[in-house]
TrEMBL record:
PROSITE patterns: HTH_ARAC_FAMILY_1 (PS00041), HTH_ARAC_FAMILY_2 (PS01124). GO terms for molecular function: DNA-binding transcription factor activity; sequence-specific DNA binding. It comes from the Bacteria. The chain crosses the membrane at residues 6-26, 38-60, 66-86, 98-116, 136-158, 179-200, 212-229. The keyword Membrane applies. This is HTH araC/xylS-type domain-containing protein. Pfam families: HTH_18. SMART domains: HTH_ARAC. Keywords: DNA-binding, Membrane, Transcription, Transcription regulation, Transmembrane, Transmembrane helix.
């Protein structure tokens, strides 16, 4: 009885938080409306999925209960679309995206003749023998295959988006992709535990399945709070890129080889422009901005930096920012300027990305580098 009460209590609290956060995401004023609505829908689906845990509080017919359980097949497709919307600024929902509801429709159509349309005693007999009924076995296999495919697809999208970002941008969006990768990793762990729970559900170890169910609810509770914390404390975190941008490897395979003389000439112009005009001081600098200033096509400039120089655009720009940082740190007249003030001055808008870039370039943190300089001149 205590275990049942605990399950119901955690389910009710998690449902309330999920629905409250969904309402917040739908009503808050932001430029990322589609992303918010997709994640709100994901939260609503998660809340609906928990209704099965609280059916002791009110009557739910078997048809409705089974239909609600199939909503699980819409959760990961919705999360996948959410990942796309966060990664790509020009993402829009289209009719073709309805294909992501196919598994949900198939699962319910399979149950139509032998479950939804039969009398109550027949439904009960079917559920009692669920472990040996072909329709239910098929739906469980379908659910787990879908789970694997969508998690892999989400990681592939994130991997490609990260590469495109590094090759074309020099702002803070990489932090968004890092966080979204971590969040997807947490969801992957959640669904893996759910898979293990379902395996034990059809064995004699039902107590293990019930224990994992409670663990999953607590895990889900903390995941939702984690998302809320990140969204509220980092409103600028959720930025995205243009899906029309291509990877440099794809550009090279599509285009004819650029003449070495042209590359050398463009490289000299690029380095002079970076040194004289200091465009890297703009925290939102993109490869398109430099392309417009130098009148070099983006595709050629991308090949020049990412392929010819062997650097991502992100690292290329950060190199100039770090070199500028070192100049400031060496300037004795600016010894009282804080590291935080310096990072904003040289074009960074994230302390974590600044520290990572500085350590990658010098092997030291900004603070330890400054102390070494001070000790050197004492």
């Amino acid at each position: 009885m205590d275990k049942i009460n605990l399950l119901v209590t955690i389910s009710v609290i998690t449902m309330f938080i999920s629905l409250f956060l969904a309402l917040f995401l739908v009503t808050v004023k932001t430029e990322h409306k589609l992303s918010n609505r997709l994640f709100a829908f994901f939260l609503i689906l998660s809340a609906i999925d928990m209704i099965g845990n609280i059916n002791s509080l009110f009557y739910i017919s078997l048809n409705v209960r089974v239909f609600i359980s199939s909503f699980f097949l819409l959760q990961l497709p919705t999360f996948y679309l959410y990942v796309l919307s966060v990664c790509y600024s020009d993402f829009k929902l289209k009719q073709k995206h309805l294909i992501h509801s196919v598994a949900f429709l198939i699962a319910n159509l399979i149950l139509l003749p032998h479950f939804y349309t039969v009398d109550l005693p027949s439904k009960i007999r079917l559920l009692e023998k669920s472990s040996s009924i072909p329709e239910i076995q098929f739906n469980h296999i379908l659910m787990h295959i879908q789970m694997l495919l969508y998690i892999v697809a989400a990681f592939m999208i994130l991997r490609k988006a990260r590469k495109i970002y590094l090759e074309n941008y020099a702002g803070a969006s990489i932090e968004s992709l890092k966080w979204l990768f971590q969040f997807t990793l947490a969801l992957s762990a959640f669904y893996f535990i759910a898979l293990v729970k379902n395996i034990f559900k059809f064995t004699v170890y039902l107590n293990i399945s019930e224990g994992l169910k409670i663990g999953l609810l607590i895990f889900e509770f903390f995941i939702i709070f984690w998302y809320l914390y990140k969204a509220l404390n980092n409103p600028s975190l959720f930025r995205n890129i243009d899906s029309k941008l291509k990877l440099v490897s794809d550009i090279i395979s599509e285009e004819k080889k650029i003449e070495p003389e042209t590359l050398n000439e463009d490289l000299l112009r690029l380095k002079k422009y970076m040194a004289d005009e200091k465009p890297f001081l703009d925290p939102a600098l993109t490869i398109q901005d430099i392309s417009n200033s130098l009148d070099i096509p983006v595709r050629e400039l991308s090949v020049l930096i990412n392929h010819q120089l062997g650097q991502h655009f992100y690292d290329f720009v950060n190199t100039y920012r770090i070199e500028n940082t070192i100049e400031i740190l060496k300037d004795s007249s600016k010894s009282k300027v804080t590291v935080l003030e310096i990072l904003y001055e040289v074009g960074f808008n994230s302390k974590s990305s600044f520290n990572t870039a500085f350590k990658k370039h010098t092997g030291n943190t900004p603070t330890s580098y400054r102390k070494r300089l001070q000790n050197k001149y004492l």
